[in-house]
Write a structure and sequence with these properties.
With 416 residues, this protein is of the alpha/beta class. It contains 13 helices and 15 strands. The strands form 4 sheets. A 7-stranded mixed β-sheet has the order 2-8-7-6-5-3-4, with helices on both faces. A 3-stranded antiparallel β-sheet has the order 9-14-13. A hairpin with a 4-residue loop joins strand 10 and strand 11. The longest helix is centred in the C-terminal third of the chain and has 23 residues. Bound molecules: pyridoxal-5'-phosphate.
């Protein structure tokens, strides 16, 4: 079939005339295909999905109930634009009570988001001119970098390595890049490494931002999912509000991924600019959803229960993987376990296979053991396991992990 004229109209930022013609497969598509192939080869077998990046459970009944009540109110029906006071005030209370961030002004320093992904896509528009740099961590969640590039900006990647506790080395930014950098995007607890930040790191980020005139975007999508102590907010750092904003989300903290709600808080000028661009992007999240989200932020014990479940699963997963030869260590938060990928696998039947990349390992695992993981080859070869695998209760979790142990029992992984 000859190309329709539409093929010639695509913008270069999404591939121009070549849009949709690339044959290279993206990582997540490869995983999907490998799963389909594994299922076809073993009809009826159970795929153990350790790759999922979202909660396995519904929102809590009281949150659903709040949505139900709020959805019936005529005053909630219309465009919400940049939102009413309910979520803004709950956000300020949440930051104070849960994260120890004092004095956030709900009127001027908070605006809701239709999920953090939406906020990460909107914020570059407020800052990035062609040729400006965004400093991103890699491996990581790439949305702000993608949008910066859509705008003619550039991305400088800061690798997250085990040697540096998966914190970026801020001093490594080349002198040629730093003056053109406008924003630094950080994300702790981190996807995919599971690493947490420290107060010292955040203090260094504030100093670095001030010295180099940078805006800091702290993506706190996993902030409240901590296994010990209190969540650590970037905004609790002295001076943080002078340089940046933090993005909180109901998705992972309240099992509300599909609801699409969160908030951006911090520096008044950045929040205002976010609101201005947002106002030209969407018409706000349904107020009933915002109000249900506010209920969540006022009930952080929900997140504590979710985190306790992940912590229990994480203990068991760490043990299972260590037994299988992986150097797994329990992270302090998030729901991700990031482990070094093996270099080879030897099976009892005498077969031995060598791997060049984490992607090779992940493909082999799904094909041979029907265990799905997410590979990362961005800064070393690692596999991401997630404790959001489907299991209906603690006994079922044990069953699933017992199954993982059994499927890996005949494999000797080599790491050198
Ligand atoms: C690091 C990170 N930031 C943001 C998001 C998106 O969160 P939301 O559902 O709030 O858009 C995700 C989702 O996986 C994530 O991993």
């Amino acid at each position: 079939m000859s190309d329709s004229y539409i093929q010639n109209l695509f913008a270069e930022r999404i591939g121009g005339r070549q849009y949709g013609k690339a044959t290279a497969l993206y990582k997540f598509e490869k995983i999907k295909r490998a799963r389909r192939a594994a299922l076809a080869a073993h009809p009826g077998a159970e795929i153990i999905d350790m790759g999922v990046g979202e909660p396995d459970e519904m929102a809590f009944p009281e949150v659903v109930e709040t949505l139900h009540e709020e959805a019936r109110k005529p005053e909630n029906r219309g465009y919400s634009d940049n939102g009413d006071a309910v979520l803004k005030q709950a956000a300020a209370r949440y930051l104070d009570r849960v994260c120890g961030v004092k004095g956030i002004n709900p009127d001027t320093e908070v605006i809701h988001s239709i999920g953090s992904k939406a906020a990460l896509s909107i914020l570059p528009t407020a800052f990035i001119n062609p040729g400006d740099y965004v400093l991103m961590t890699t491996p990581g969640y790439p949305v702000s970098g993608t949008h910066a590039k859509y705008l003619g900006g550039l991305v400088h990647n800061l690798p997250l390595t085990e040697a540096n506790n998966f914190l970026p080395d801020l001093d490594s930014v080349p002198a040629g890049v730093l003056p053109k950098a406008k924003a630094l995007v950080i994300n702790y607890p981190n996807n995919p490494t599971g690493a947490s930040a420290t107060p010292e790191f955040y203090a260094a980020v504030v100093a670095f931002a001030k010295k180099n005139n940078l805006v800091v975007i702290s993506d706190a999508a996993y902030a409240a999912l901590v296994y010990e102590g209190k969540p650590l907010s970037f905004l609790a750092t002295p001076g943080a509000k002078d340089v940046g904003v933090e993005l909180h989300s109901c998705s992972k903290s309240f099992n509300m991924t599909g609801w699409r709600c969160g908030f951006v808080a911090g520096n008044e000028l950045i929040v205002k600019a976010y609101g201005d661009v947002k106002d030209n992007t969407d018409s706000g999240q349904f107020l009933a959803i915002q109000h249900a989200a506010a209920y969540g932020f006022d009930h952080p014990e929900i997140t504590a229960q979710i985190a306790a479940k992940y912590s229990r699963r994480m203990d068991a997963l760490v043990q299972t993987l260590r037994h299988a030869g992986f150097n797994a260590r329990k992270p302090k938060g998030s729901f991700f376990l990031y482990v070094k990928a093996p270099k080879a696998a030897a099976q009892k039947n005498g077969q031995r296979i060598e791997f060049n990349t984490a992607e090779d390992v992940s493909q082999w695992l799904i094909t041979e053991t029907l265990i799905s993981t997410v590979p990362w080859d961005d800064a070393g070869a690692y596999l991401r396991f997630s404790v959001t695998f489907v299991a209906k209760d603690p006994a079922d979790e044990q069953r699933v992990l017992g199954e993982v142990a059994q499927r890996l029992a005949d494999v000797k992984f080599e790491f050198k």
